[in-house]
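Researcher: If only I could read C-alpha cells as easily as an amino acid sequence. Walk me, if you will, through where the backbone shape changes along the chain. I have put the entry right below:
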Amino acid sequence: MFPTFLNHINIFQSEENCLQLLSEPEIFYNIEICPNCGSNVSLINTSYRCTRRWCRKRISLFNGTIFSQSMLKCNEVMNIAYLWAAGCNNNAIMNMGGHSNHTISNFISLFRLVVAMSLDRDDTIIGGEGIVVEIDESKIGKRKYNRGHWVEGVWKIGGVELTAQRLMFAEVVERRDAATLIDVISRHVKPGSVIHIDLWRGYTGLSDALNVEHLTVNHSQQFVNPVDGTHTNTIEGTWNGLKMKNVPRKGCKEGMEEQLLEFIWRRKKEEN
C-alpha cells in the first residue's frame, strides 16, 4: 500500500527528520577516511570534515545524490518526490509545494532518469511458453504546425502479457516496418509466447522470424476476433492510460523513453 501523506507529513515538514529517514538506508554519501590525507573525518551538519588541522577537507553529505545540485532542502525535494510518486501532476505539485513549474519539471525529469536506471533488462522481457502477449503500436502527439515546422508525434510499440502482473514493455521506434517490429519483439518477448496483434502489414512473417505463435484481429471489422477471441484491448487500454498521464506538448521524442520506462516501473511497483 502506498504510504499516506499523513504518515509522512512530520518528516516532510522537518529537515532533521527527513535527513534521519534518508540516512538509515544509506542514501547519502558515506566515508570514514579523508580521501585527501587518510585521516579520520567527522560529520558536522551536512558535511564530512577532515580532523587533521592542516587538511580540513570538506565533502558534502549529498555528494553523488539527487540533492547535490539542488538549492532546495532535502525535505522539500522528498516532498516533490512523494507527490510525483503518488501520481500528482505538475500543477498540483507546484501548488502544494510552492515551487516553480521549472523546478518541478527538472526534478521529475531527474526522478524519471533514476527510475530508468533502476530497471533491469529483464524487467521489460515478458511472456513465455503459452502466455498471451498483446502487441500494438501507437502514436503520442498529433500532426501539427509548431514554430515553423511540422511535428509528427512519436510512434511507439508495446506489449502487455495477459497475466495477473500485466508485465509490459514499450519502446519508441522511428519506423513501423517489419524489420523494426520483429527486432523489437525479439528483444522483449520470450520464445513460446502467443502473440495477439492486428493486421498491420509490419507484422507479416512474424511467426516465421520468431519462435512464437501469433493470432490476429481485423480492427476494420471488429474489436474481438469472433472465431478465437483474439483482441488487443488490454494494450490499447494501456496506451490510453499512458496518454492521459502526458500533456499534449509531451508528444515529442525528447523524454518519451523515460516516460515509457516510468510507466513500466509504476506497473511493476503497483504492489510496492
Summary: The mean pLDDT is 83. The first strand starts at residue 41 and ends at 44. The first helix runs from residue 5 to 13. The domain at 123-268 is CATH 3.30.420.10 (Nucleotidyltransferase; domain 5).
